[in-house]
Write a structure and sequence with these properties.
The chain has 2 domains: about 1-120 and about 305-370, Rossmann fold, CATH 3.40.50.720; about 130-305, Rossmann fold, CATH 3.40.50. Strand 5 (about 90-95), helix 4 (about 100-110) and strand 6 (about 115) form a beta-alpha-beta unit. It starts with a strand and ends in a 14-residue tail after the last helix. With about 375 residues, it is of the alpha/beta class. The strands form 2 sheets. It has an 8-stranded mixed sheet, with helices on both faces. Strands 9-8-7-10-11-13-12 form a 7-stranded mixed sheet, sandwiched between helices. The chain has helices spanning about 20-30, 45-50, 60-65, 100-110, 130-145, 175-190, 200-210, 220-230, 250-255, 305-325, 330-335, 335-340, 355-360, and strands at about 1-5, 30-35, 55-60, 70, 90-95, 115, 170-175, 190-195, 215-220, 235, 260-265, 285-290, 295, 345, 350. Helix 5 runs parallel beside helix 6 and helix 10 packs across helix 11 (about 330-335). It is globular, with a radius of gyration of 21 Å.
């Protein structure tokens, strides 16, 4: 099998889909690994390290797409890359198709086999999404603390306060992997933390692991509205696998927030869970103000800490990639029901129901299409 590793072109995206270690593992299995020159530099991996690991480094991206059976990336392809797709090729990356009809159409038109990291499942969890959710959740508090500083337009409050001065109020909407990791950092800072979730068992679990150091609140519109009004820092951490994120926090709720409060919406990859987060921003221009509130909606937050992010991501994605390459895509999918859930497009059809529903595109059961991939 020929594996192609492409340099990311999204704004300030420094991660890479495969490290020299991963290239070594695949090369030892007898596979050819083609790496675009400079693909790993942002994460601290030089071309020479890939060559030493047994990979072939090439400067022509199109040549890699033309030859590779499987293309490995981190972020979803951008429009300038759509013309490089070819029928029957497997794309193994984050896709986030629900808010991206243009990419979905390109994958369907070119009959690409799209396997999305964010919808692969195992034991009820999302193993390929979890590492970046951990990173983004932790980053959300660092970022929020920075923008709460007055020179950055914020309220001018310290998350943890000081003796005699109350700490900042951090409200986290969503108690999954992002929310729990955001809470971990916020509690560590000494903030006054409230986390909301629809699942009472999940709230019990969070209460137990944090030992009462945060407040838990069951999700309903009244509780969300009250919590948002009091928040100095609001973190959106809501996810429905493969589906566009529901708008949990309304514009009317945002209007009640303090001037200089900060919102960080980690759900922006899936369209955002805050109504006033109406577009993704970039690391070059990460924030905008609406109703006096600072909005941060960078769609590739973990790209700012690429060394940590790349290593964490590969630890999760590499075993699946080895199986796809060594067993073949069809067999690997058929033998792993959780990996099958990662199949979003195949043979010109949408094979992820949540994404299909969000886009208004007909869904096709992936099991009917996998044979012969």
């Amino acid at each position: 099998m020929v594996i192609g590793v492409i340099k990311e072109i999204k704004n300030n995206e420094f991660r890479v889909g495969l490290t020299p270690v991963g290239a070594h593992v695949l090369a030892r299995e007898g596979h050819t690994v083609l790496v675009e020159s400079g693909a790993g530099v942002g994460s601290g991996f030089a071309d020479a390290e890939y060559i030493a690991a047994g990979a072939v480094v090439e400067s022509d991206k199109k040549s890699i797409f033309d030859r590779a059976n499987i293309i490995v990336k981190v972020k979803e392809p951008l429009e300038s890359e759509y013309a490089l797709f070819r029928e029957g090729q497997t794309l193994y990356t984050y896709l986030h198709l629900a808010p991206n009809p243009g990419l979905a159409k390109a994958l369907l038109d070119q009959k690409v086999i799209g396997i999305a990291f964010e919808t692969v499942q195992k034991d009820g969890g999302l193993p390929l999404l979890a590492p970046m959710s951990e990173v983004a959740g932790r980053m959300s508090i660092q970022i929020g603390a920075n923008y709460l500083q007055k020179p950055n337009g914020g309220l001018g409050v310290l998350l943890g306060g000081v003796p005699g001065v109350l700490p900042a109020k951090v409200v986290i909407v969503g108690g999954g992997t992002v929310g729990a990791n955001a809470a971990k950092i916020a509690v560590g800072f000494g903030a006054d933390v409230t986390i909301l979730d629809i699942s009472l068992p999940r709230l019990r679990y969070l209460d137990e692991i944090f030992g009462g150091r945060l407040k838990t609140l069951v999700y309903n519109t009244y509780n969300v509205a009250q919590a948002v009004k009091e928040a100095d820092l609001l973190v959106g951490a809501v996810l429905v696998p493969g589906k566009a994120a529901p708008k949990i926090v309304t514009a009317d709720m945002v209007k009640t927030m303090k001037k200089g409060a900060v919102i960080v919406d980690v759900a922006i990859d899936q369209g955002g869970s805050i109504e006033t987060i109406d577009h993704a921003t970039t690391h070059d221009n990460p924030t905008y103000e609406k109703y006096g509130v600072i909005h941060y909606s960078v769609a590739n937050m973990p790209g700012a800490v690429p060394r940590t992010s790349t290593l964490a991501l590969e630890s999760a994605t590499l075993p699946y990639l080895v199986n796809l390459a060594s067993k073949g895509v069809s067999r690997a999918l058929l033998e792993d029901e959780g990996l099958m859930k990662g199949l979003n497009t195949a043979k010109g059809h949408m094979t992820c129901k949540n994404a299909a529903d969000s886009l208004g595109i007909e869904y096709k059961d992936p099991k009917t299409l996998v044979a012969g991939l």
